[in-house]
Amino acid sequence: MAEPILKVENLSCGFHTEGGYQRVVDRLSFAVAPGETLGIVGESGCGKTVSALAVMGLLPRPAGVVESGRIALDGDDIASFTPEAMRGVRGRKIGMIFQEPMTALNPVHTIGKQVLETLRLYEPRTDQTTLRKRAHELLEQVGIPAPAQRLNEYPHQLSGGMRQRVMIAMAISGRPQVLIADEPSTALDVTVQAQILELLRSLQREHRMAMLFITHDLGVVAELCDNVLVMYAGRVAEHAHVRELFGSPRHPYTRGLIQSVPLPDTPAKSVLAAIDGVVPALKLMPPGCRFSNRCQYVDNICRTAVPALETCALDHEVACHRWRELVA
Amino acid sequence: MSAPLLEVRNLKKYFPVRAGVLLRKVGQVHAVDDVSLTLDRGQTLGLVGESGCGKTTVGRTILNLLPASGGEVLFEGRNLRELDSAEWRSLRRQMQIVFQDPMESLNARHTVGRIIEEPFVIHKLGDAPFRRVWVAELLERVGLPPSAADRFPHEFSGGQRQRIGIARAIALKPKLIVCDEAVSALDVSIRAQIINLLLELQREMQLALLFIAHDLAVVRHVSDEVAVMYLGKIVEQAPAEEVYTRPAHPYTRALISAIPVPDPTRKRERIVLQGDVPSPVNPPSGCRFHTRCPFVAPVCSTKVPQWEAVAPRHFVACHRWRELPK
């Protein structure tokens, strides 16, 4: 296994709100190596996007803060970087793509102008003609047909899939070592999603990027990721190799998630194994295990003590008091 | 045999495209073109397709939320176009809709009680005390506490709001509910709860569901029959199992192969379609799928494929379905 390029240790971050400080991500740790894809899965509000923004140094200031923890990128602790220093990291070392490419692209500028602007940031001394050639190559690389024409078009003239390709082109234009993809295919149709996933996979292989893939779709995780981090209400519930996770999920939440998705062989119209209840609001989190109020295996200890992340098998960690009893 | 609950014949819906200062009509969007469907009591018909294929327009045109440009909709054998307004009102009670985003379809300024009560008020049923009891019963039926009646939609989570939308839809004991992407915006664990609720209600009330969605795995789970739409046309229709195990149309095959399956040990042959869905303003000639079809032949761009029977109750509109690799 290669040395990790990005290593996050005990990262806690949150937001100052009118009602006081709210911790959104609680002691998150993970690592990704070059060429590896780590999936972060969880439902809305579990903290997956906030974690990614924290890594990028993009938490909205001044409300959002990284409380504690280390974010080691290629040996540097970027959690301690100034905003100016972070500007040198984003794009060049870590690239990011977002869910909605329409909001991430500026509607009043052409695609070409936006791609060139990004490129110029990385190569301020290169002349316009060379940059334009680079932009053309980039669009070609992400599979955009007729790139020369596309460079002169505006975002609204492109389909959702094409816009996402432009975003990917911009994200890799600084040749980053780490690519963070936050639900990049969620807003797309399945056939277009398949194209985008294929593209990400081949780009990653080609550039040996480490990829952090944030999604709520377990199907996408199973197809794309090497390792998976399951988050629930701001904490890691389970962390394992993808085959291990789907083959022997240990956390009741992970099990519930997997079972609540109908598979091709689930009997039609059968009752799906839904998880009861909803994720509690941050202020109303149960004191012990945050899943305790929805867990069917809840015990007294779950309500009072926060479960630690324990190793339960090779490349497999789980944060559940009762995982040993639930193995069978 | 008695008439099916819902029969849609050659339904068409075109939207004008206007341009210039005089807003002259310069073309039309062929949103729905010659769609025919039938749905029986207590059954689910799944309608799948990608964005812009016209599936939502089909649902809305059936309910007359959008006037049809052509074709007929028959409900229990009665042609909806030939009804007077009184008849229409009484039929309207029997067909309801649940939308994708309950936050947008529930009036944010009304209490949940008032929202659910509204169908009774519109149809002048019961008086205030009665309605209060009915609302409480409906809330309980969809898994919400009676106290929810005094709260506002924003106080609820997405899943709970969808329960409110469902409570309103079942208030008048309809025979048909159009579920327009009703579970698409929900998190997986919540989605499963809502799917279970819809299926329970279907069994209890003999509800027919027109389940419109882009998520093929979910559609397969809830549907008895599935119709696949592409650019305003239905390209294939069959019993749910059949569509997924023996898809005949190349588009259906591509769609199914594109579903990410949550099982890392399953490695599949994937058909990755090239390009995007073309514009419905000038849909491709012949078979509308021919610009993206991996099996395209010369005939596909010139002749519109006819409905052919692949098996009993399994229909496809493709010139080449017989020759395609199994």
Task: Provide an overview of this structure.
The complex is a heterodimer of chains A (328) and B (326). Chain A is of the alpha/beta class and 328 residues long. Chain A is 34% helix and 23% strand. Chain A has 13 helices and 12 strands. Chain A has helices at 48-56, 83-89, 101-104, 111-122, 128-141, 147-151, 160-172, 190-207, 218-224, 242-247, 252-259, 300-304, 323-326; strands at 6-17, 20-32, 37-41, 64-73, 76-77, 94-97, 178-182, 210-215, 227-232, 235-241, 310-313, 316-318. Chain A has an 8-stranded mixed sheet with strand order 6-7-8-3-9-10-12-11, with helices on both faces. In chain A, strands 2-1-4-5 form a 4-stranded antiparallel sheet. In chain A, strand 7, helix 8 (190-207) and strand 8 form a beta-alpha-beta unit. In chain A, helix 5 crosses helix 7. The longest helix of chain A has 18 residues, at 190-207. With 326 residues, chain B is of the alpha/beta class. Chain B has a domain at 6-94 and 174-246: P-loop containing nucleotide triphosphate hydrolases (Rossmann fold, 3-Layer(aba) Sandwich), CATH 3.40.50. In chain B, strands 6-7-8-3-9-10-12-11 form an 8-stranded mixed sheet, with helices on both faces. In chain B, helix 4 (112-122) crosses helix 5 (128-141) and helix 5 crosses helix 6. Chain B is globular and about 70 Å long. Classes of the chains: A alpha/beta (328), B alpha/beta (326). Chains A and B meet through helix 7, helix 8, helix 9, helix 10 and helix 11 of A and helix 6, helix 7, helix 8, helix 9 and helix 10 of B.
Overall shape of chain B: it is globular
CATH topology name of the domain at 6-94 and 174-246 in chain B, in short, is Rossmann fold
Helical stretch tally of chain A:
13
Largest sheet of chain B: 8 strands, mixed
Spatial order of the strands forming the largest sheet of chain B: 6-7-8-3-9-10-12-11
Main sheet: strand order of chain A:
6-7-8-3-9-10-12-11
Multimerization state = heterodimer
Radius of gyration of chain B: 21 Å
From the coordinates shown, what is the CATH architecture of the domain at 6-94 and 174-246 in chain B?
3-Layer(aba) Sandwich
Please report the distance between the alpha carbons of the first and last residues of chain B.
Answer: 36 Å
Helix content of chain B: 25-40%
Low-confidence parts of chain A, pLDDT < 50 over ≥5 residues? none
According to CATH, the homologous superfamily of the domain at 6-94 and 174-246 in chain B is P-loop containing nucleotide triphosphate hydrolases
| Total count of helical runs of at least 4 residues of chain B | 10
Q: What is the count of β-strands of chain A?
A: 12
The largest sheet of chain A is: 8 strands, mixed
Total E-strand runs of chain B: 12
Helix and strand pattern of chain A: EEEHEEHEHHHHHEHEHEEHHHEEH
The average pLDDT value of chain B, as a whole number, equals 91
| CATH class designation of the domain at 6-94 and 174-246 in chain B | Alpha Beta
Q: How large is the share of residues in beta strands of chain A?
A: 15-25%
